[in-house]
Amino acid sequence: MLDEYICLKEQKVMLDQERVCMEQEKNRVQMFLNGVQNVMNVYNASKSIPLTNANGVPAAVPPQSNLGENTFS
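RESULT FIELD:
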């Protein structure tokens, strides 16, 4: 009976250690997801801000060249 108690106590200690590791991993994932959400919020907020130069005039955005096309004539 004492051996059974000792075995159960060891199992409880291992389960407690595993629970702590799972809580730590859960917190790391939650912090990561919060960071991703913050980045997405900043990105989405920046899309609604018009680009302007120092004089407050909307800045001209140069057209993007098509990759793979020969631009040398």
